[in-house]
């Protein structure tokens, strides 16, 4: 009887679904915005985890729709805020720490590619940049250097945020559907998003090292 009483107390201590939503949706918004600005929070993993939790609630379609709306709005808001801060740095004589932060996260070769594609395809590059791992910042910096007005950048940021939210929400749905427990789905979604985000950079590093070794052997 004591064990049953403990289980009942534990069940009562778990927050209700409405309480989880009241805390979870604002937290999702703030984490995505914060991650868009400081560039350290894995925002894709945050959205995928929220999607996993959503599909285990009593009304999954509605919960997923809310997650999509919140994530899209947060991604758009974060991108526009960071671009606005970057524009202040471009216009300023001494620049700004935000512009320096964007520079630090854009490899020179990626920036050259982004500038070339931006000249050729325009706003469409913004949409693709949100879907390519580590592609958002080089394209944003290219837009800053091209002195795009904020309104033009925002027009491309809208479909980019929508496409990004859909992509990572689908990853969460896939991870959540494979496991019966929400925490297992969250773990799978986080691992999958980390692999997706880090694999291209590791591949580029491996190719660069291989090319350097080949040049060294040829020179020797």
UniProtKB/TrEMBL annotation:
This is VTT domain-containing protein. Pfam families: VTT_dom. Its main location: membrane. Residues 51-172 form the VTT domain. It is found in: Cell membrane. It is a multi-pass membrane protein. InterPro entries: DedA-like (IPR032818), VTT_dom (IPR032816). Keywords: Cell membrane, Membrane, Transmembrane, Transmembrane helix. The lineage of its organism: Bacteria, Bacillati, Actinomycetota, Actinomycetes, Kitasatosporales. Coiled coil: none annotated. The chain crosses the membrane at residues 28-56, 62-85, 157-179, 185-203. Belongs to the DedA family.
């Amino acid at each position: 009887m004591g064990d049953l009483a403990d289980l009942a107390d534990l069940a009562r201590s778990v927050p209700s679904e409405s309480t989880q939503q009241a805390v979870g949706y604002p937290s999702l918004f703030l984490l995505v915005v914060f991650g868009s600005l400081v560039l350290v929070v894995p925002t894709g993993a945050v959205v995928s985890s929220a999607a996993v939790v959503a599909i285990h609630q009593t009304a999954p379609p509605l919960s997923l729709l809310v997650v999509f709306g919140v994530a899209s709005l947060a991604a758009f808001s974060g991108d526009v805020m960071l671009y606005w801060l970057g524009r202040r740095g471009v216009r300023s004589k001494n620049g700004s720490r935000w512009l320096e932060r964007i520079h630090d996260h854009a490899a020179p070769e990626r920036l050259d590619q982004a500038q070339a594609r931006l000249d050729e395809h325009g706003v469409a590059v913004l949409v693709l940049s949100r879907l390519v791992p580590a592609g958002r910042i080089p394209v944003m910096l290219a837009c800053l250097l091209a002195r795009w007005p904020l309104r033009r950048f925002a027009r491309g940021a809208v479909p980019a945020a929508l496409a990004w939210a859909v992509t990572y929400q689908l990853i969460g749905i896939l991870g959540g559907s494979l496991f019966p427990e929400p925490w297992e789905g969250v773990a799978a979604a986080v691992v999958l998003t980390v692999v997706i985000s880090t694999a291209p950079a590791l591949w580029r590093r491996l190719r660069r090292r291989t090319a350097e070794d080949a040049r060294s052997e040829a020179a020797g």
